[in-house]
Design brief:
GO terms for molecular function: actin filament binding; phosphatidylinositol-4,5-bisphosphate binding. The chain is of the alpha/beta class. The protein folds into 5 domains: 91 residues, Severin; 91 residues, Severin (3-Layer(aba) Sandwich), CATH 3.40.20.10; 90 residues, Severin; 200 residues, Severin (3-Layer(aba) Sandwich); 90 residues, Severin (3-Layer(aba) Sandwich), CATH 3.40.20. Strand 6 and strand 7 form a beta hairpin. The protein is globular and about 95 Å long. The two termini are 44 Å apart.
C-alpha cells in the first residue's frame, strides 16, 4: 500500500516485506472442486494505523468483488499463519523502512548493501534485518551478512542441519533474485576452519568481545492450547456488541446458523470469524473489526492470527476443528456421489490392483500398499514371547490375544515389509506392551525396514482385510492358545461385511436379536446347525462371501434363511425376538479430507507440532520425525538422522495428537510407522511426484 493505494509488487520482490508497510496478497489454487482463493493483508511492525485500516478495507472490497469465495486472513509481521508462510518456499525477508516511516525504498545500487539478517525457523524461514553488531548474534540461529557482492552465512554452533540448509536456500534465493546470480556465498560452519571469511566479518562488525548469547527457544503454541476451541455467537444489541459463548469442543457443524456470524477461538492461537450466508451486509463488513475487538477484550496479543470465512467456502483448517463436517452433493473418492438423505449403502468400488504402481495416489486413496498377493506369517504373543500360529488358522483373531502379522511383498525385485500389531480388546496390558517390544525385534530381523502398523481390534485397515482373502474372523473374547480353559459359547453370532475377498471380515457380536441389522448377512452358529441369515438390504456378493466364512466358524450343516422367514429355533437360539436396526444404512459423507503434514517436536517437554501447508517430499527432513494425518490413519515418518528420544516418543506423540485433536478423533485410528527410504505406496501416494531415489 502506497499513499493508501494498492500498487503491484514486482514478482522478483515476492517474499520481501518492508517493516513500515502493509501488503495485500491474493493466492489462487486449482482444486478438485474448482479453485480455492485466499486473501491476506499483512501488517508491518512499523506501519501506521491508517494503512492498517486501509488494508482491511481493500480486502473487504476484494472479497465482495470475488463474490465472497476467498478465505481472508490478517497477518502480523513475525506471527504469520502457516498458510501464508507456505507461499514463500525459500523464506520471508523483513527489510527496515518503508513509505510511511519516511525512508524511501532504497533500491539504487544493488551491490551497495551492508546488512545483517537473522534467519529463524526450520520448516518456515524468516529473516529479519538486525543491527550490524556481534550483539545481534546467538548460538542457535543462522545469520547472513549481506555485503552485496558477497554473502556470508554464519551457522550458530547449536544449529540443526535443517536450519543450515534452509539458511543456504535463502542465501541462494537472495543471490538469484536480487543480485541476478552475481554474488558469492561463503559459509562459516566452524569459525576455526574459515579464517578468511572471519576476517571479513571482523572488518565489518569489529572484534568480538565476550561470549555469544545462548540460543533462544521459539515461543510456540502447544497442541493442548490449540485443542481448546470455543465458539461464540456475535451480534449487536442497542449499538453494543454482544459476544456470547455457545459451545466448547467437540464442536458440531449444526451450531453454525446461516443467519448469524460466529467467532471461533482456537486457544488464543488463532481466531476464526464465520459469516453466515444470510447474515446482513453490515455484519459481514464488521468481521475483522469484531475479531480485533474480541482479541483486545480477551487480552490476547495484537499479533494474533485472524481468518475470516464465508459460509460454504470454509478452509480445510476450519473444517478440521469440527467433529464431523459434511457437504451437500459431495463426490467422494473414486467418483462416488452421495446426496444427503437418499443413501442406502456404500457401494464398494471394484478395485484394480494393477493400477497401484502407475497411480500411487490411488494406493493412498484406497489405502493399499499393493494387491495383497504377498506372503503372510502370523505369531501370537504367549507368555510375552512370539509363538507361531498354525497357518491353517491364519485370519482368525481372538479378542483375548495380541498378534504380530508380517506381510512381505516384492517391489522392483526386492522384499518390502509391513508389520501389523493387532491388539485384542481383552488382552492384558503386559501383552500389548510385549507385542510392541517383539515388533521391534522382528523389525530388526527385517533390517529395520518394516512399516509398523498398530491395529486396534475392530479398526482393521483395508489392506489387513485384503491379505486374509475374505477369511478374516474376529472373535470377541477367548484365545487361540492350545491350553485355554474357557469353553466355547454354545451359541455365537457373527456379522459379515464385504463383497469380495479384498474387503470382507466377520466380527462376533452379542448373540441377541438386537445385534441384527437388515443391511448385512449374519452367521448364527449353534451346536446343531449354522444359519446364514440374509438381511433385506444385503447383496448377492455379500451372501457368497458369508458362505466362505461360514465354513470357518462352524463345521455343522448350513441353512440359509431370509429376513422375515426365520424358523422358531432361530429366535430361540438368540434368546427371543427383539427390535433391531432395519432402516437403510445412512452413509455419513465426511468431507474429502485434505491430508496434513506436521513436524513433531517433543524436546522441550511440551508437545509441539508445526504444520507444513502445501507439503512436498522436500519437506521431509532427515533429522525429523514427521506426522502425516490422512484422517483414516496416522503415518509417522522417521528420518535417518532423527534423535533416539524423538523416535521412541513418536507413537506416544501420535496418540497425543489424536487425543488433543479439536475434532474429538477416534483414539483407535491406525498409527503407521514409516522409515526414510522404505516408504510404501499408500504413503508416497499423498505426495505429488514422489522421487524414490531422492535419498
Amino acid at each position: 500500500l502506497q499513499n493508501m493505494k494498492m500498487v503491484p509488487v514486482p514478482e522478483k520482490a515476492y517474499g520481501t516485506f518492508f517493516e513500515g508497510d502493509c501488503y495485500i496478497i491474493l493466492h489462487t489454487k486449482r482444486t478438485s472442486r474448482g479453485s480455492a482463493i485466499d486473501l491476506h493483508y499483512w501488517i508491518g511492525k512499523d506501519s501506521s494505523q491508517d494503512e492498517q485500516g486501509a488494508a482491511a478495507m481493500y480486502v473487504t472490497q476484494l472479497d465482495t468483488a470475488l463474490r465472497g469465495s476467498p478465505v481472508q486472513h490478517r497477518e502480523v509481521q513475525g506471527h504469520e499463519s502457516e498458510t501464508f508462510q507456505s507461499y514463500f518456499r525459500s523464506g520471508i525477508i523483513y527489510k527496515k523502512g518503508g513509505v510511511a516511516s519516511g525512508f524511501k525504498h532504497v533500491e539504487t545500487n544493488m551491490y551497495n548493501i551492508k546488512r545483517l539478517l537473522h534467519v529463524k525457523g526450520k520448516k518456515h524461514v524468516s529473516a529479519t534485518e538486525v543491527a550490524l553488531s556481534w550483539d545481534s548474534f546467538n548460538k542457535g540461529d543462522v545469520f547472513l551478512l549481506d555485503l552485496g557482492k558477497v554473502l556470508i552465512q554464519w551457522n550458530g554452533p547449536s544449529c540443526s542441519i535443517a536450519e543450515k540448509s534452509r539458511g543456504l536456500a535463502l542465501a541462494r534465493s537472495i543471490r538469484d533474485s536480487e543480485r541476478g546470480g552475481r554474488a558469492q556465498i561463503g559459509i562459516i560452519d566452524n569459525e576455526k576452519d574459515s579464517p578468511d571469511l572471519m576476517q571479513i566479518m571482523r572488518m565489518v562488525l569489529g572484534e568480538r568481545r565476550g561470549e555469544l548469547r545462548d540460543a533462544i527457544p521459539d515461543a510456540k503454541a502447544d497442541e493442548l492450547q490449540k485443542a481448546n476451541v470455543r465458539l461464540y455467537h456475535v451480534y449487536e444489541k442497542d449499538n453494543d456488541l454482544v459476544v456470547q459463548e455457545i459451545a466448547t469442543r467437540p464442536l458440531t457443524q449444526d451450531l453454525l446458523q446461516h443467519e448469524d456470524c460466529y467467532i471461533l477461538d482456537q486457544g488464543g492461537f488463532k481466531i476464526y470469524v464465520w459469516r453466515g450466508k444470510a447474515s446482513s451486509p453490515e455484519e459481514k463488513k464488521a468481521a475483522f473489526t469484531r475479531a480485533v475487538g474480541f482479541i483486545q477484550a480477551k487480552g490476547y496479543p495484537s499479533s494474533t492470527n485472524i481468518e475470516v470465512i464465508n459460509d460454504g467456502a470454509e478452509s480445510a483448517m476450519f473444517k478440521q476443528l469440527f467433529q464431523r463436517w459434511t457437504e451437500k452433493n459431495e463426490t467422494q473418492g473414486l467418483g462416488k456421489v452421495y446426496t444427503t438423505g437418499k443413501i442406502a449403502k456404500v457401494e464398494q468400488v471394484k478395485f484394480d490392483a494393477t493400477q497401484l504402481h502407475a497411480r500411487p495416489e490411488l494406493a493412498a486413496e484406497q489405502r493399499m500398499v499393493d494387491d495383497a498377493s504377498g506372503e503372510i506369517e502370523v505369531w501370537r504373543i504367549e507368555d510375552l514371547e512370539m509363538q507361531p500360529v498354525n497357518p491353517k488358522t491364519y485370519g482368525q483373531f481372538y479378542g483375548g490375544d495380541c498378534y504380530l502379522v508380517l506381510y512381505t511383498y516384492l517391489r522392483s525385485g526386492r522384499p518390502h515389509y509391513v508389520l501389523y500389531m493387532w491388539q485384542g480388546r481383552h488382552a492384558s496390558v503386559d501383552e500389548v506392551t510385549a507385542c510392541a517390544l517383539n515388533a521391534i525385534q522382528l523389525d530388526k530381523k527385517c533390517g529395520d525396514e518394516a512399516v509398523q502398523v498398530r491395529v486396534t481390534m475392530g479398526k482393521e485397515p483395508t489392506h489387513f482385510l485384503a491379505i486374509f482373502k475374505g477369511k478374516l474372523v474376529i472373535y470377541e473374547g477367548g484365545t487361540s492358545r492350545a491350553q485355554h480353559s474357557t469353553p466355547e459359547p454354545a451359541v455365537r453370532l457373527f456379522q459379515v461385511r464385504g463383497t469380495d475377498e479384498m474387503n470382507t471380515k466377520a466380527t462376533e457380536v452379542p448373540a441377541r436379536a438386537s445385534s441384527l441389522n437388515s443391511n448385512d448377512v449374519f452367521l448364527l452358529a449353534t451346536s446343531q446347525v449354522c444359519y446364514l441369515w440374509c438381511g433385506k438390504g444385503c447383496s448377492g456378493d455379500e451372501r457368497e462371501m458369508a458362505k466362505v466364512v461360514a465354513d470357518i466358524v462352524s463345521k455343522r450343516d448350513k441353512h440359509t434363511i431370509l429376513e422375515g422367514q426365520e424358523p422358531a429355533e432361530f429366535w430361540e437360539a438368540l434368546g427371543g425376538k427383539a427390535p433391531y436396526a432395519s432402516e437403510k444404512r445412512f452413509q455419513e459423507q465426511v468431507t474429502h479430507y485434505q491430508p496434513r503434514l506436521f513436524e513433531c517436536s517433543n524436546q522441550t517437554g511440551r508437545f509441539i507440532m508445526t504444520e507444513v501447508v502445501g507439503f512436498c517430499q522436500e519437506d521431509l527432513d532427515e533429522d525429523d520425525v514427521m506426522l502425516l494425518d490422512t484422517w483414516e490413519e496416522i503415518f509417522l515418518w522417521v528420518g535417518k538422522g532423527s534423535n533416539t528420544y524423538e523416535r521412541n516418543e513418536a507413537v506416544a506423540s501420535a496418540k497425543e495428537y489424536l487425543k488433543t485433536h479439536p475434532a474429538g478423533r477416534d483414539l483407535a485410528t491406525p498409527i503407521i510407522l514409516v522409515k526414510q527410504g522404505y516408504e510404501p505406496l499408500n504413503f508416497t501416494g499423498w505426495f505429488n511426484a514422489w522421487d524414490p531415489y531422492k535419498w
